Amino acid sequence: MTIKLIAIGKTDNNNLQSLMDDYTKRLGFYIKFSIDIIQDIKKAKNLSEEQQKQKEGELILSKLTATDVLILLDENGKQQDSLAFSEYLQKHMNSGIKQLVFVIGGPYGFSQDVYNKANGKISLSKMTFSHQMIRLFFIEQLYRGFTILKNEPYHHR
């Protein structure tokens, strides 16, 4: 199985990017992981929130294959602790799927088409974080999940 993270807009904070690169490298010891960045919509200020979500949604859906399992990182998704998330990852690995795709939406969330295609939703917190910080938090949690599955000391119980 491979895991892909899709996000809208580049990370312009070098410190966050450096940390994301570090955890991405660490993840490589456990699983094939990639990040697919969709460029910000040009002239988004001229679009309504709904139009922007629709355009971003079309770009997100264009990055998927027919067999991908799509999980949205969404404020209304299911919350779980790190142990439960590691079990969630294991369950998907055991299911035989080829690619598990997680998506961080744009500033207004996801279009209805993306919600309709999704196989699930996860929330990382009830708090609101910047979309750039969520990338780091999610990648770190992926890494933590795999260290839990391998019974390594990174996560202290």
UniProtKB/TrEMBL annotation:
Pfam families: SPOUT_MTase. It comes from the Bacteria. The keyword S-adenosyl-L-methionine applies. It is found in: Cytoplasm. The keyword Phosphoprotein does not apply. S-adenosyl-L-methionine binds at L73, G105, L124, S125, K126, M127, T128, F129. Belongs to the RNA methyltransferase RlmH family. Homodimer. This is Ribosomal RNA large subunit methyltransferase H. It comes from Mariniflexile fucanivorans.
